[in-house]
Amino acid sequence: MITQVSEFLIFLFPETKHLVIKYWYQHLAGKYHLREWTFMNYGYADLNGDLKLTLREDDEVDRYYIQLYHYVASVTDFKDKKVLEVGSGRGGGCYYMARYLKPSQLIGMDYSHNAVDLCNRLYTLPNLRFRYGEAESIPFPDHSFDVVINVESSHCYRSVPKFIREVARVLKPGGFFSWADLRWSSGIRETDRIFRKSGLRLIKEEDITPNVIRALEMVHTEKLNTIQVHAPKYMWKLMREFTGTTGTKVFNAFRSRKKVYLSKFLQKV
Hints:
With 269 residues, the chain is of the alpha/beta class. The chain has one domain (2-210, 260-267): 3-Layer(aba) Sandwich (Rossmann fold), CATH 3.40.50. It is 43% helix and 20% strand. The protein has a seven-stranded mixed sheet with strand order 3-2-1-4-5-7-6, sandwiched between helices. Helix 1 (2-12) crosses helix 2, helix 2 runs parallel beside helix 5 (113-122) and helix 3 (63-73) packs across helix 4. The radius of gyration is 18 Å and the shape is globular. It starts with a helix and ends with a strand.
């Protein structure tokens, strides 16, 4: 009953949701400094053999998480471009993109000070840095970036329309915005409406729920082992839900299509 009331309050008041989730991410980044835990997304499995991605041996352990970033980023060329990731989390996606896709500059922005500090300690590449910022008020001038990406983060925001307006503002004319995230099925129409009103031109969109479900199945055992080794026992259930292991409410919501995972690729004209 308490959980149901909490979920209702978080849904009813966007500011409450924002503060609760921000506290949770601050806690995780402040308490768990594992170099091995650099990704927080659900992952992407290649179901049709279309995703051609060769990884270095030490990156193979994170293949499914990296594949989600590759899927989102590969729609445009990053080479020698200035790129912003909004919601960079623990930085694994930025680290992959900075090394493999060769942007001239890649900035990972996150609303967790702890996550930003952690990433700046973990990753030292000449074309990569991290800084604090809110998605609804991106701290960069107009026309600053060639590409903005946003992976599995916007469902935490207070106002997605404000966020997308900020993306449009900081993009250079002709720049690209690549987005992927989960939504309740009941909210698909509203999500589509927000993107249609953004002023950005929609180039491609896809429902990748089956790819995400398969990825969650493939990393289930690894996630359970990590949780049981590194988290106190009283946190196991919460961490399983947070990471979407099989059998959890999150996983079952994808299976029943109460939740879906969508992607969109847009251009500023």
